Design the sequence.
């Protein structure tokens, strides 16, 4: 191991080098000042304090020691530091610094309290709409205001830049207590402060006294500045400031309940995306609205922006946040197969879980309208007509077959992107829920287009277990898809109001015959035939049901016989009586004789002349029989 101990720029023990290191806080991270003296209290008992920067950079002995502690925490907790950070902390007018201290900080008056966490915030926003539209029309954007310019450019909404917010620039936790919840406690206290949840009981009296003191200080400083420069009037800002030691310094640390919070609309942050940082900011209640497609050249990470709304301070519902979240969800899901293809499945699932429930219906009509415009759909529940745009009935059959282990997963490989997009956008309904492993496999195969072997190596699981879990997940999705089709079929059936309407129409048609004209005529014919055959009802059933006996029965009713015998004399023997025959005519048949058999064998047909002669002979025989019966 080689160590360079001889200085090159300065001589050994040069006082200028030590003075410069002390002035710029270059060696504050390596010393006893970083150690914790009071232990690690419970995070819920710690409170966040506001640092007055005028008192911090007053070069007072205690203030200088506290600044060294603060910058030492920055150096030990962050990988990249420079003297510019100290200059920005002291001079940037829109920046503010907060520290998380132990509950015994106010009791120990003889020593400086231990700094558990530091939060640096920059106020952004309040940009005029005309300026934003003019810059975006030329494809440029001004320096500063990172979140307003980026979100306005990405979503094409110039109204967002008019909102005001606070961007968390840095969060540094003491290295001895990292991962113990102090950072989350600091962000929670900061959110409550900007949301107006911290109210002091003595705020009114303190505000009046502070206003009077500020007025007195302003008037005195203006008079001194006018006397020194020989000018009338007052000068405000750096040019009018008198550089001289102050007799009375403001308090270095103030509780948040005693500091007036500005009126803000959102609280956000921008950071290089890692799994740990994303989980941290997600626990703080923030939602991802932007993920840069190209990696940072220095860190190799994708820059991300996450935001949380402050509805209590704004006084209206934050309709823009769920609308932007829905739009970001659609974009990131579509880009997982491109710029984010090589992102780890765990990180991709952490991002997708962040969007869980973003498209749910809100109580505000304004928010629902904004979500509908951004998502392109007015309802979370999918209909069959929408489903057919992604999957045909034959595709659903293939998915069902794979869910039943009737085919290999390659048979449904072309359907997995559509199935994965429907699932992660929440269009399959709240009942379609996969386990963490099943959702990760669906994300890797369906959205990132990774093979099963790649997922096996990345997750560290055997291939047979990966395929088995993936099959169970597809089976659940198949059940959900079939449920959408079944619900559509149930809705098509009559029920409820439609059923009552149909019953009302049926009641109006109650006295109308449902028979056609042909059916009515056939029914009348059957009734007439039954009436004509009613005269045989007096005969015994053994006689009336015997066809051989009934063929000799005398036809005709009593009325017909009375009418036929009306003009007939009583003792007259000659003459005939005729009535209308009710017997159905049947086509005549003849018996086959030897001549017909011979002609059939010879292949010849029966001559027309012989058939006419036989027909005339048969007709004369029928007349003779009829005359004998009469």
Sequence:
């Amino acid at each position: 191991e080689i160590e360079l101990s001889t200085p090159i720029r300065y001589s050994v023990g040069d006082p200028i080098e030590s003075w410069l290191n002390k002035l710029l806080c270059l060696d504050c991270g390596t010393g006893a000042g970083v150690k914790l003296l009071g232990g690690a209290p419970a995070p819920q008992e710690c409170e966040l304090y506001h640092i007055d920067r005028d008192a911090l950079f007053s070069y007072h002995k205690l203030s200088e020691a506290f600044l060294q502690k603060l910058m030492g925490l920055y150096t030990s907790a962050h990988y990249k530091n420079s003297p510019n950070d100290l200059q920005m902390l002291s001079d940037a007018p829109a920046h503010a610094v907060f520290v998380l201290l132990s509950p015994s900080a106010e009791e120990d008056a003889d020593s400086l309290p231990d700094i558990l966490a530091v939060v640096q915030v920059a106020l952004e926003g309040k940009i005029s709409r005309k300026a934003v539209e003019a810059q975006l029309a030329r494809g440029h954007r001004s320096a500063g205001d990172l979140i307003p310019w980026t979100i306005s450019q990405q979503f094409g909404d110039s109204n967002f830049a008019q909102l005001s917010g606070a961007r968390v620039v840095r969060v540094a936790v003491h290295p001895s207590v990292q991962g113990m919840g102090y950072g989350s406690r600091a962000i929670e206290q900061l959110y409550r402060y900007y949301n107006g949840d911290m109210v002091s009981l003595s705020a009114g009296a303190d505000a009046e006294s502070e206003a009077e003191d500020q007025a007195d200080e302003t008037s005195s400083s203006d008079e001194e500045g006018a006397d020194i420069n020989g000018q009338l009037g007052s000068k405000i800002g750096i040019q009018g400031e008198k550089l001289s030691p102050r007799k009375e310094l403001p308090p270095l640390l103030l509780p948040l309940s005693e500091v007036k919070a500005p009126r803000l609309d959102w609280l956000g942050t921008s950071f290089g995306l890692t799994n740990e940082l994303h989980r941290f900011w997600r626990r703080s209640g923030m939602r991802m609205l932007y993920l840069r497609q190209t990696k940072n050249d220095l860190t190799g990470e994708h820059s991300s922006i996450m935001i949380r709304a402050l509805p209590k301070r704004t006084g209206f519902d934050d309709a823009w946040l769920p609308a932007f979240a829905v739009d970001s969800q659609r974009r990131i899901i579509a880009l997982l197969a491109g710029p984010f293809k090589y992102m780890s499945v765990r990180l991709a699932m952490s991002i997708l879980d962040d969007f869980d429930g973003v498209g749910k219906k809100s109580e505000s009509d304004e928010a629902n309208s904004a979500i509908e415009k951004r998502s392109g759909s007015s309802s979370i529940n999918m209909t069959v007509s929408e489903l057919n745009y992604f999957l045909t009935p034959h595709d659903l059959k293939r998915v069902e077959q794979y869910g039943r282990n009737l085919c290999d997963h390659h048979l449904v490989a072309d359907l997995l992107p559509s199935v994965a997009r429907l699932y992660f956008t929440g269009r399959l309904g709240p009942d379609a829920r996969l386990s963490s492993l099943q959702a990760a496999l669906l994300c890797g195969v369906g959205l990132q287009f990774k093979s099963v072997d790649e997922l096996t190596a990345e997750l560290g699981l055997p291939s047979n277990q990966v395929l088995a879990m993936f099959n169970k997940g597809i089976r659940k999705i198949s059940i959900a898809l079939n449920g959408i089709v079944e619900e559509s079929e149930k809705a098509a059936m009559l029920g409820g109001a439609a059923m009552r309407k149909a019953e009302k129409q049926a009641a109006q048609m109650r006295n109308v015959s449902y028979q056609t004209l042909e059916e009515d005529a056939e029914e009348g014919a059957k009734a007439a035939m039954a009436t004509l055959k009613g005269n045989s009802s007096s005969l015994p059933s053994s006689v009336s049901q015997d066809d051989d006996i009934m063929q000799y029965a005398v036809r005709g009713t009593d009325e017909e016989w009375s009418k036929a015998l009306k003009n007939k004399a009583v003792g007259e023997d000659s003459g005939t009586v005729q009535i209308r025959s009710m017997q159905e005519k049947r086509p005549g048949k003849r018996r086959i004789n030897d001549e017909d058999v011979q002609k059939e064998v010879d292949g010849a047909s029966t001559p027309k002349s012989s058939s006419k002669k036989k027909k005339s002979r048969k007709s004369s025989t029928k007349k003779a029989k009829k005359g004998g019966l009469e």
The two ends are 147 Å apart (CA to CA).
